Amino acid sequence: MKSFGIAVAVTLLAGILSAAEIWDKADYTAWSQKDCEQILAKSPWAFQYVHTNFYRPATNISAGPGTTTDGETNAGFEPQSGERESRIIFQFVLLTAKPIRMARARMLLLQSPGMTAQAEQFINQPVGNEILVQVQYASRPPGISAIHDIQNYFRRATINDFQGNTFLTSSERKEPLHISRYERPTEKNAFSVFVFPRFDASGKPYFNGKEKSITLRSDLKIPVAQRGGRESYSVFVKMEPKKMVLQNEFYM
């Protein structure tokens, strides 16, 4: 699948879409900038994992997370005197899903209205043999040392860092579908991409939209520059295939 030459800045933790989803009620050429940002940040094809720590501002040392609910972890206790809460937000976006391509194309048209042909070509290109999941990340408050550790990790990582711990499963498929390729951030593409195969050896898709759920898991062990050791981020995010539909067709 060809990449698209537009830098898309999405505000993480965007608001939830209305009950009448914009991708169902209007042609993509009528979407506003806000509509596109919401689809790219909070839709059935874009999902988050939030990791919460308590730290002391002077040292920024993690208190050590404990899992709470799906998609979110915290330190397992209330902050002590002098401690503050920090959150790392991982945002995962299904770049190969048609509604995501439509939102990216619309943002291009909002910047360059004359590029209609290029936008249509990008939207309607064959989806290819792979599922592409873009990995974004941000912190609250911004600029804490952990986010720099994460940036450095993804810039230096190779496929070997993810092959054994990053995979997709579903309610119908218990055997993990492991990552097949990893794309590092570049000057052109600011965020990394997890790549998974779309079809098995017989040409049958691994996921068809009939599943009750599809899950992305990744056990990240990220080196901590300030205090040494590694910070664990046990990513667990669940997709709802019944909602990943545009005009009665499943997209992933």
Describe the structure concisely.
Helix 2 packs antiparallel against helix 3 and helix 3 packs antiparallel against helix 4. It is built from 5 helices and 13 strands. 19% of the residues lie in helices and 31% in strands.
Distance between the termini: 13 Å
Low-confidence stretches: 5-19, 58-70, 74-80
Round the mean pLDDT to the nearest integer and report it.
Answer: 85
Radius of gyration: 19 Å
Structural class: alpha+beta
- Largest β-sheet summary: 7 strands, mixed
**Beta-strand share of residues:** 25-35%
Helix content: 10-25%
- Global shape: globular
Summarize the helix and strand pattern as letters: HHEEEEHHEHEEEEEEEE
Strand order of the largest sheet: 2-3-1-4-5-9-8
**What is the count of β-strands?**
13
The number of helical segments is 5
Defining key terms:
about 250 residues, alpha+beta, 7-stranded mixed β-sheet, 5 helices
Describe the structure.
- There is one protein chain.
- Strand 12 and strand 13 form a beta hairpin.
- The two termini are 13 Å apart.
- It is globular, with a radius of gyration of 19 Å.
- The chain has five helices and 13 strands.
- Helix 2 (33-41) runs antiparallel to helix 3 (98-111).
- Mean pLDDT is 85; it is low at 5-19, 58-70 and 74-80.
- 19% of the residues lie in helices and 31% in strands.
- The longest helix is centred in the middle third of the chain and has 14 residues, at 98-111.
- It has a seven-stranded mixed sheet with strand order 2-3-1-4-5-9-8. A four-stranded antiparallel sheet has the order 7-6-10-11, with helices on one face.
- With 252 residues, it is an alpha+beta fold.
